[in-house]
Amino acid sequence: MRVVCVCGARPNFMKVAPLVDALHHADIHPTLVHTGQHYDEHMSRCFFEELGIPRPDINLGVGSGSHAVQTAEVMRRFEPVCLETRPDWVVVVGDVNSTMACALVAAKLNIPVAHVEAGLRSFDRTMPEEINRIVADSISDLLFVSEPSGVENLRREGIPDERIRFVGNVMIDTLLRHREAAEQSAIRERLGLEPRGYVAVTLHRPSNVDDPTALGSILNALENISAELPIVFPLHPRTAANFKRFGLGARLAGLPRLIRTEPLGYLDFLSLMAGAAAMLTDSGGIQEETTILGVPCLTLRDNTERPITLTSGTNRLAGTRAETILAAWADMRANPLSARMMPELWDGRAAQRIVRELMACRQARTATSRGAPRMGPVAERSVPPTMTGVHGGSPDAMAAVVAAGGVES
Ligand code: UD1
Description:
binds uridine-diphosphate-N-acetylglucosamine
């Protein structure tokens, strides 16, 4: 089986790592394509080293640009790769521009596309990621879903059940695999941080950091919070540039209890999250990671495409204005969340399930093209109607899925 795996931006690397590993274990050696959407040492290369991802076979070297330019450039450079390798699958992960661009190229060449982390919806089309998710899902042949809301969303959009697989969360595969190694990180000692004695912050969403009023309001909230607990703030390049551009850099630098750092590597950042009293973030993945780590998370957004982190995890929506953030902060300090349910199938084996499904569907396709009746995994392993009821994670519904062959645990 020939597989092309695509990654492009920071959050893709931790998703692609367990997939590439599981493919190798199944004796399938994928062609790894890095689009080059992210290219800095801190935003890209260090993740390959730390997560043991093989050097990409192909780097498209696309770099930064407007959405149209970046997307078009990825498409232009990915098409010859597809024509040359003619894979059985193009596997894309997440929701960045590279995800959508490569899915589109493959679909137009009639190459089967598998989307990992399908079905998530914020229902906010001003987010570039929401557009990427909708487009990638609508043209993918197999949709690998990380939480029950994803199944419901896809069904609502008319995606047939036989394309949907609820398999769990590859990002959590990576977290569980590297949790122990992260305990060896010296980042907390280096920054002089006491366990549970600090807050860690990340920000990069255009809606929060590309607008001076929005960024200024978040900075007001950070000023207040830092009076209570020290803050560590690894700065995304977009965010660092905008603090300067909007004349807010001096105010940020002047906060005595706020430590700014470069973007951190995976293990240091995992260690920082695991030891924090709380995370403040607008990232998607961090909402999921804090849920597994049991660390309270305030999401600086008005919505989330990952509702399981609100219902089963440690996440709360805090909005984006100083007043709402500080109200959520006070509420979190007064009523810390007690232990909650781990989301279903976030067990470290999502990538293995995905590889099994890719192989099974490929076999079914081959059988069909030889004239055999259309049966086997694609028809048999669809998500049964009972899936609609599993939001929140009922074990009975899951048993029904397993019994119907939807996933193997
Ligand atoms: C992208 C993804 C976002 C993801 C985020 C993680 C899209 C639409 N957005 O946003 O979903 O959560 O990555 O970081 O795909 N830059 C560097 N070095 C780099 C990469 C970027 O300096 O290695 C700077 C450039 O100035 C660039 C800016 O960061 O213009 C933004 O990069 P870009 O890839 O456009 O989007 P992100 O904001 O990183």
